[in-house]
Design brief:
The chain is α+β, with helices and mostly antiparallel strands. The protein is 24% helix and 42% strand. The relative contact order is 0.21. Keywords: Hydrolase.
Length: 133
């Protein structure tokens, strides 16, 4: 799975992606971007976007970036997230960049921004990459 369209189609085909409502913006050269519109059904008991939703957004966005490195399959093996600001409305944008990679792993950084371009969450993650060749 190495072409952008294949990667985009694979993510957009999952039930989780569609249930949450993610939008694929781009994925190429070890980088990716996605978007999500705030919805009340994705909130926690405080009425803010649930941290698990943010982690899922980051994991998917970094996963897209990892796939663009040419792996056939990628799996998250470590993820550390810092939540910086709560979200109660608006459109979110997640970005991912590759920090480093080896033959079988990739380290990525993911960020979520609100409509005012304020940092909402920051994440680093390690992905295991597999090639079937």
């Amino acid at each position: 799975m190495t072409t952008q369209m294949t990667i985009q189609q694979a993510f957009e085909h999952t039930e989780l992606w569609n249930t949450i409502g993610f939008e694929f913006i781009k994925g190429e050269n070890g980088e990716a971007e996605t978007a999500l519109d705030f919805r009340p059904d994705l909130t926690n008991v405080a009425g803010t976007l649930h941290g698990g939703m943010m982690m899922t957004m980051l994991d998917n966005t970094m996963g897209i970036a990892a796939y663009t490195l040419g792996f056939d399959v990628v799996m998250t093996i470590q993820m550390e997230t810092r939540f910086i600001r709560p979200v109660q409305a608006g459109r979110l944008r997640a970005t991912a960049v590759t920090i480093d990679r080896t033959r079988t792993t990739a380290i990525l950084e993911g960020r979520i921004y609100n409509e005012d371009n304020e940092l909402i969450a920051l994440c680093t993650s390690t992905f295991k990459g597999v090639n079937h060749k």
